[in-house]
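pls design
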């Protein structure tokens, strides 16, 4: 497509029909990947793993809400967290360790069973 000439019935030199492939494409691609990696890694941080029952804050749109880690997902970067009334699966970068006192984790809440006696 690129760098090719259309074949027509008009006379044309056969040399002009041959492709011209630059020699340094692989080197340029590696250079672009190296630069991209360099600038990405300047601000990338390794996040500490979260424990089950740990108090966190979860990113919901523009606000951060308190939540508790309920379980780790099969993929290591995902965690299931429970806010006051819902469970969410979130990537680790959307969860922050909470500085507040840890919220009590009650496994019966995740199953929908009540633990209060009235």
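designed seq:
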């Amino acid at each position: 497509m690129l760098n090719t000439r259309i074949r027509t019935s008009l006379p044309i030199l056969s040399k002009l029909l041959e492709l011209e492939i630059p020699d340094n494409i692989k080197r340029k691609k590696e250079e672009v990947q190296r630069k991209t990696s360099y600038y990405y890694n300047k601000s990338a941080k390794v996040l500490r793993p979260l424990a089950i029952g740990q108090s966190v804050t979860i990113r919901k749109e523009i606000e951060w809400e308190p939540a508790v880690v309920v379980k780790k997902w099969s993929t290591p970067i995902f965690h299931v967290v429970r806010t006051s009334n819902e469970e969410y699966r979130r990537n680790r970068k959307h969860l922050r360790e909470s500085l507040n006192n840890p919220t009590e984790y009650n496994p019966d809440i995740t199953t929908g069973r009540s633990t209060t006696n009235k």
